[in-house]
Each structure stands twice: as C-alpha cells, then as structure tokens.
Amino acid sequence: MVKNFLQGKPLRHPLHPMLVHFPIGLFLLSLLLDLASLVRPSAPNLLTGSFYAMLTGVITALLAAVPGLADYTVIRSDHPAKRTATLHMTLNLIVVALYGINLGVRSSLFAAQKIALVPLLLSLVGIALLSVSGYLGGRLVYDEGIAVGRHKRRTPTPERTLHFSATESGFVPVPEAEDLREKETLRIEIDGQVIAIARIDNQFFAFQEFCTHRFGPLSEGCLDGSYVQCPWHNSRFDVRSGKVVQGPAKVDLKTYKVETRDGKVGVLLDKRS
User: Fold this and answer.
1) Count of the separate structural domains present in the chain
2) What is the pLDDT of residue 153?
3) Percent of the chain's residues with pLDDT above 90
4) CA 66, CA 63: separation in Å to the nearest integer?
5) What sign does the dihedral 64-134-76-206 (CA atoms) show?
6) Buried (b) or exposed (e) across 134-173, using 16+ Cβ within 10 A?
7) Does one domain contain both 225 and 168?
8) Could you tell me if 15 and 95 lie in one domain?
9) Residues 6+ away with beta carbon under 8 Å from 197
10) Which of 52, 77, 157, 217 has its CA 20 to 30 Å from the CA of residue 227?
C-alpha cells in the first residue's frame, strides 16, 4: 500500500520525477543569489535568501529521495539499468551531503556582503554533480524505461528470478514451469542468460527476458495468443519464433526449445550460446 503510493500508482504518475524539480530549482536559485551578491554586494538579504533557498532545497531533496528509493528497489539486480540507477542515487546522496556541509559553512557568514570562495565552490560542484545525476535520471526513463507505466495483467507477474546452472547435455530441468497456469510466466537465469518461460494453450515457450528495444522485462508483459507485448514501449514478439510483429523493436528475440525429458519440463540451451 505505502510502496504503491510512493511509486505514484494512485496518481497514475511516478512521484519522484515530480518532486525532484523543487530541489533542483531551489539549488539553482541559491547559486544565482550568490552570484548576485558578487555583482551587487550592497544589495540586502541576498546571502540570507541563498541560505534559506539551499536549506529548503535539502529538505525537498530528502523528500524526493523517499519515492526515488521506492522506485530503485523494484529495479531488478539483473537489469542493465541497475548500475545506472545506483550511480544516480549515489550522486544524489553526495549532492545532499555537499549542500549540508555548505549550509554549515554559511551559517556563520550571514553578516557578509558577498559570498565567500569556499561556499561558492561547494555550490558550483553541487550543481555540476546534480546536472550529471539529472542526465542519468533522464537515461533511466528515456533509454531504460524505468518508471514507465506497466500494462495491466490478469495473471501474476514473476516476483523473483530462479537460478540454474547449465548441463553438459544442454537440457536444464525447470520443475517450477509445470506449476504455471495459462498465460503465466516464469523467469529463470542460466549462467548469465535470463530467460522467460510462458505457458500458452498448454504449451511452454521460452525466450530471452529483455526486449531488444530498451530492455523491457518481457516476463512482466501481456500475453495475447502467441504474442508477448513489452510492458514498457509496446513492442510485440511472436514467442514461437521470436519475430518482431510490432515496433519500436527491430531486432528479433532469441528463443529456446522447451522439452520434456523423463517427465521433467526444461529448457534446451544451444551449446554455442
């Protein structure tokens, strides 16, 4: 319930991108007031205004971090976006720490007519790091599809990835696949290969987990007949052949044979893969 709210699901819009505008604007305002104090040192309350803009920026940054952390926790560790998201979060924490130090330095400079060198440099470094972090945040949305809305499914989506090791024969039994209901999916990882298994018309199909467009998790997508639809940007693939039937994806999926041996359902890997 709380996590759904932090992810903005009741609003049908993620909260984190909405809230980050406040600290960004306030930190930038603080810097502009600092620069104004250099141009017009006799103007009153410029440094006081800069201090309180920065203080409010730190407070709103901490508020924005809460839904940001909620978004971060749902990014799977095997997804390519996880590393970018970790760097984005780390930079944001460094920025908040820098501005916290900056506030401490400024607390004894209210009587000054113009900004001192050290707090000005801290503000410039903070804005620079914030710009890099903002760029990474944009990549997470536009390139990686993080926080993009999911399609509604009537069947459960996999909560975890099951891990297996490859065998000499190439056949990897997956006992959990037999428990799948119609149009349910299962996500497995075999020596670095992340694979989705789907049950359609009482048949099993296996295909690569990540969409060839922007790495959307296909095990969380909609199944319609023999087609799977990416939950991020609507690309559709034929699970029987991996062929793209609807863009924006242009590259076909890799598919895997599913066989039953000795009463066990499993994936047959290409030994060359």
Assistant:
1) 2
2) 56
3) 54
4) 6
5) positive
6) eebbeebeeebbbbeeeeeeeeeebeebbebebeeebbbb
7) yes
8) yes
9) 174, 177, 180, 185, 186, 187, 188, 204, 205, 206, 258, 267
10) 77
* In a domain? residue 181: yes
Expressed as residue numbers, the domain containing 52 is 2-142
* Amino acid in the structure at residue 5: F
Is residue 112 pLDDT above 50, yes or no? yes
**pLDDT for 102:** 96
Q: In terms of residues, how long is the chain? A: 273
pTM of the model: 0.61
Give 196-205 pLDDT, tens digit per residue. 999 999 899 9
Last residue of a domain, one of 79, 114, 142: 142
Is 157 within the bounds of a domain?
no
Other Cβ atoms less than 10 A from the Cβ of 203: the count is: 11
d(CA 43, CA 35): 12
CATH number, domain of 166, equals 2.102.10.10
CA distances from 182 to 24, 203, 217, 225, 233 (A): 47, 9, 19, 11, 24
Statement to judge: residues 10 and 135 lie in one domain: yes
The 8-class DSSP code of residue 139 comes to H
Q: Tokens 């810097």 identify what position? A: 31
In this structure, the number of other CB atoms found within 10 A of the CB of residue 273 comes to 12
138 and 6 in a single domain? The answer is yes
Q: pLDDT at position 28, please?
A: 96
Which helix (H) or strand (E) segment holds residue 193: the answer is strand 193-200
Give, as one character, the DSSP assignment of residue 17. H
Whether 148 is covered by a domain: the verdict is no
Residue 273 inside a domain? The answer is no
Structure tokens at 187: 């996500």
- Where is the domain boundary, 111, 142, 173? 142
